[in-house]
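(Protein data)
===
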Amino acid sequence: MHEVEWNERFNIGVGIVDKAHQRLFSIVHRLMNFSEDEKRSQWACAEGIKYFKSYAVKHFAEEEEYMRSIDYNGYTMHKRLHDNMRYKVLPALEKDLEDSDYSEESIHHFLGICLGWLTGHILIEDRAITGRTVNKWKEEQTGTEVETLEKTISHVTNEVFKLESKIVSEHYAGEDFGDAIIYRITYRSGEKEQWQIFFVLEEKLVLATVGEMLGVKFQRVDKMVIDATKQISQQLLKCLGMYFKVTGQYKFEKDHLLTRDQLLQEFNSAYPYYSLLFDTGIGYFAFCAKKRIIR
């Protein structure tokens, strides 16, 4: 996990907001230090996480009040991002920590996702409040659409892998939740329209599910695991074809394995139309989809 120190580029120019952001960074870094000490990690992380959560919720309310005071036109989407963090991400991560008795993996999930969310949200969405950048999350999909897709993905993963997946975030932005296989599949319709589908699969989840399906106990990701992951991802996508029409007018064009830096570059160019993060109990995975009109 990359440490990110506070610096001036995170300032948006609003005193109460900038001070709160600095405080949130400080809490995350203290949690990182606590997690390195096994004797103190469980108690310290439990208390630190409660404090982070309460402080973050307080900060969101103050920031929302400021946005309303200046009639910020991106308020509705910005509040939706706060609500996603407030009501879905933090409770899901907190439950993961408690259920695993504050395991090393669950602490890594918490810190990686929170730190990644903070940096991305501040540098893009928060700086957009004062016109220093342009917000990237757009209000296109409806809440009903996302909820139906969440349920469909959960149903498919249960049917195929017997895994009970639970939503962690409805606006996954490439946060680092551990070593992962990142697989992109591109479909095209004629000359004008394209879907890019991203599967971000935690390695321990892949090793367990592929091993179970093939009856082999894998210790590391090798070519056989990668090839199986590609096939499984394509089959899962066919089950979700009702959303992307990939079995009809859309034709497979190409596929690639990506590094995390390449994934972030993709997200920096434009955030996905759908971008969901799930916890299966044995590992995390993200499903993301970007639609492109080719001119």
In short: The chain has nine helices and six strands.
